[in-house]
Design a protein that fits this description.
Blueprint (H helix, E strand, L loop, with lengths): L2 H15 L3 H13 L9 E2 L5 E2 L14 H4 L2 H7 L19 H4 L6 H11 L7 H17 L14 E5 L5 H17 L17 E5 L5 E5 H20 L15 H13 L5 H13 L20 H6 L3 E3 L2 E3 L10 H20 L9
Antiparallel strand pairs: 1-2, 3-4, 4-5, 6-7
């Protein structure tokens, strides 16, 4: 998913699940910020204090940089959660190890990930970790069939889609996709942005030679319904996360989300995001109009609100120390991010015989 899905759609789903505007805004901001946390350097305060952080994404601008891009600590925990072929813990799938790593929608691994997150619902960063989990959970739907490692399983051939804008675009994409499939078949890189376009219907041949038919809108609606149920578990304080016992989206809510996914069909995810925000601001999703924003940087961003602008000394940035940093959304996000990754790779994945390094 792109920012329209991870931020705006997540907000709408959270409101439908029962969160208020502020709560839903926190969850949605964190769900999107997983894609924005690309800096792993510690920050230094002028009084000598420090704060460490980790990355949860890389901007995939250069597919030739396979050493950086093939970061299992980023792609597997946050974007391509292994599906274990749909098997429960202790029951590895037959065949090669790669079969454990392929992402699957709402897999037993995903359910255990949500249960792990639920153990932190009493913490000050509970909503922040819930937002991170909603990013990962949504991607189990959007990224299904791909793995967060460089492997031939991710090769993509013969994409067919009505959403090709022109013959020139198709030729350009075919050349780029073939180069990526050959040199660095990581995640859905060879499929370009097709898995993340909410309006796209497409057919492709995967790395095992199987023809796959995908309707992204239907897949995204399924993700929205599952996310709604997970957030309803949070509101019910159901730490067992019995998703199947929650009502999920109503028929009307489902129809409104499906309409937005199909109607907002600009190729640019930022423009689609603006359309979602406009509909939220005018109350078109059935709840009271609200102003929803997302600022990655600048004075209104969580980052700058938490630490203030940089003070550069000898070419190195420092920040003014304040006790308010400890209760800032930006710190809570990174607290949740570090905790999530540690417990997923230490506790959840090893139960399925999966080690991440």
């Amino acid at each position: 998913m792109q920012i329209d899905g991870h931020h705006a759609m997540t907000y709408v789903v959270a409101r439908y699940a029962g969160l208020n505007h502020h709560q839903a805004s926190v969850v949605a901001y964190c769900a999107q910020y997983v894609d924005e946390a690309t800096n792993e350097n510690p920050i230094y305060f002028e009084n000598g204090a420090m704060f460490d952080r980790i990355v949860s994404a890389h901007k995939m601008l250069d597919y030739r940089n396979t050493v950086k891009l093939a970061n299992h600590m980023v792609w597997i925990p946050f974007h391509f959660l292994p599906g274990n072929h749909g098997n429960q813990a202790g029951h590895p799938p037959e065949g090669r190890f790669i079969n454990r790593l392929i992402c699957m929608p709402d897999s037993p691994v995903a359910r255990d990930m949500l249960r792990m997150v639920a153990t932190h619902w009493h913490k000050p960063y509970a909503l922040h970790m819930l937002g991170i989990a909603m990013h990962v959970y949504a991607d189990t739907f959007a990224h299904q069939g791909f793995a967060g490692v460089v492997h031939d399983i991710n090769r993509v051939e013969s994409i067919e889609s009505a959403q090709y804008m022109s013959l020139a675009e198709r030729i350009r994409n075919d050349v780029l996709r073939h180069g990526i499939s050959s040199a660095s078949p990581l995640g859905h890189g060879a499929a370009l942005s097709f898995p993340d376009r909410p309006y796209a219907s497409w057919i492709y041949v995967n790395g095992t030679g199987e023809t796959v038919v995908r309707d992204n809108t239907e897949i995204f609606v399924q993700a929205a319904d599952a996310m709604c149920k997970a957030i309803q578990c949070y509101l019910a304080q159901d730490h067992a996360v019995k998703i199947d016992q929650q009502p999920g989206l109503t028929a009307q809510q489902r129809n409104l989300i499906e309409s937005a996914l199909r109607t907002f069909d600009d190729e640019d995810g930022e423009r689609r995001h603006e359309q979602w925000l406009q509909h939220i601001a005018t109350g078109d999703f059935g709840f009271a109009p609200e102003v929803l924003t997302f600022h990655k940087t600048g004075p209104e961003s969580w980052k700058e609100k938490a630490r203030g602008p940089a003070i550069v000394r000898d070419g190195k940035p420092y920040y003014k120390y304040s006790e308010s940093f400890f209760s800032s959304d930006w710190k809570f996000f990174h607290d949740a991010l570090k905790t999530y990754r540690l417990e997923l790779i230490r506790d959840v994945l090893p139960a399925y015989g999966i080690c991440v390094a």
